[in-house]
Design a protein that fits this description.
Length: about 375
């Protein structure tokens, strides 16, 4: 299998579970430098830096994602680093310039995760209007169209409902061609349509195999209607232990020690996300209390067990079209090292059960021009 692996950069305090259980994970840059180098050595391909501006679930300290990405690029050699940004808090022209600069400095190793926004307080505290759910995705789509235009066109103009660009030039262009990869998440219909039209990667919260299959089929169909292909990434919290019982006991301890107040605060915040979508099926809309302890539903994905069981689960994910597994851990450095030593070699030895049609070229794009670009 050619499945690629990523990890969440713990650039915010509190780790990746909302639990009072001790975690040998730290938000400092010194720790993240050691972690990035360990992940690179272990065979990881990507690292995703989180975007947080205020605490919502015990994450009182936050290193800004673009700054962290830039710094980590200077202490690694191969790792591709993904910076998360929020349209509304950033202007796309400025972000296009920043990411192009980092790509140039890093030798083509920076990418972007465009987060439409689920935490209302991050916008209102900064004096930015809070848009309704589907409007946030419309803004993000325009944001991405501006990025792509400025990265690829000698001179770019754009007239949209949210952004206006007038004969803008950007040099140097990014090293990556046609441009740095653009990631996005979301489970709602609006998120899926946006992914099919403009994004390179579609991130999915933790889910069952059937849940993933449904999302992948829907986004892939939308991409085909637009003459495009999209790659797929899943979120997973990894508990790699010698026995299944050991892994299950670790999960029980994490949940039993959950910070109930912080979990409830997070639950209240995400009500502005999935349940506010028109169809009520966006991110976290069906999440239980246990799911929210790992705040991207990572337990659901099922990478909990022995190395062999985890590798076989990844084989199942590969078979339905998953290209990248985004991982989180209780104790990051030591567990990433163990994952690279114990799990990745097993994954590489397993045959791919993937349907070749998942990677087949899609039809040519529709002939009409995009209505908002000029």
């Amino acid at each position: 299998m050619k499945t690629r692996f990523a990890y969440w950069v713990p650039n915010v305090s509190g780790g990746l579970v909302i639990s009072k259980l001790p975690q040998r994970t730290d938000w400092s840059f010194e720790y993240n430098t050691r972690l990035a180098r360990a992940a690179e050595e272990a065979g990881f391909d990507y690292a995703l830096a989180q975007a947080r501006f205020i605490a919502s679930y015990g994450a009182e300290k936050q290193l800004e994602a673009v700054v962290t990405t830039t710094a980590l690029a200077t202490v690694t050699q191969r790792l591709k680093i993904i910076a998360a940004v929020h349209p509304g808090l950033w202007h796309p022209g400025v972000v296009a310039k920043m990411i192009a600069s980092i790509d140039y400095i890093s030798g083509g190793r920076v990418n972007l995760n465009v987060v439409s926004g689920w935490f209302k307080g991050e916008f209102t505290h900064y004096g930015v209007p809070w848009l309704e759910h589907d409007e946030r995705y419309r803004r993000s789509e325009e944001f991405i169209r501006v990025l792509r235009g400025m990265w690829t066109e000698p001179e770019f103009s754009f007239k949209g409902d949210f952004y206006s660009i007038n004969e803008a030039r950007l040099e140097p262009k990014p090293i990556q061609k046609p441009h740095p990869e653009i990631f996005q998440g979301g489970n709602s219909i609006a998120a899926r349509r946006m992914a099919g039209r403009v994004s390179n990667w579609y991130f999915m919260n933790g889910n069952s195999i059937e849940g993933f299959k449904e999302q992948i089929a829907d986004v892939r169909a939308e991409a085909a209607r637009n003459g495009r292909t999209v790659k797929f990434a899943v979120n997973a919290f990894v508990i790699n232990r010698p026995t299944r019982e050991d892994a299950a006991e670790q999960l029980r301890e994490i949940v039993a020690n959950a910070d109930e107040e912080a979990v409830e605060g997070f639950r209240q915040a995400v009500m502005q996300a999935g349940r506010s979508s028109k169809e009520g099926k966006g991110m976290w809309a069906q999440s239980t209390y246990e799911d929210l302890v790992q705040y991207n539903d990572g337990f659901k994905t099922g990478l909990i067990g022995t190395p062999q069981q985890i590798a076989e689960r990844i084989q199942e994910l590969d078979a339905i079209g998953v290209d990248l597994v985004l991982t989180a851990y209780l104790h990051f450095i030591e567990e990433i090292e163990a994952f690279g030593r114990e799990v990745i070699p097993l994954v590489r030895a397993l045959p791919s059960l993937r349907d070749p049609q998942f990677d087949a070229p899609q039809p040519a794009p529709r002939s009409h021009a995009e209505p908002v670009a000029v």
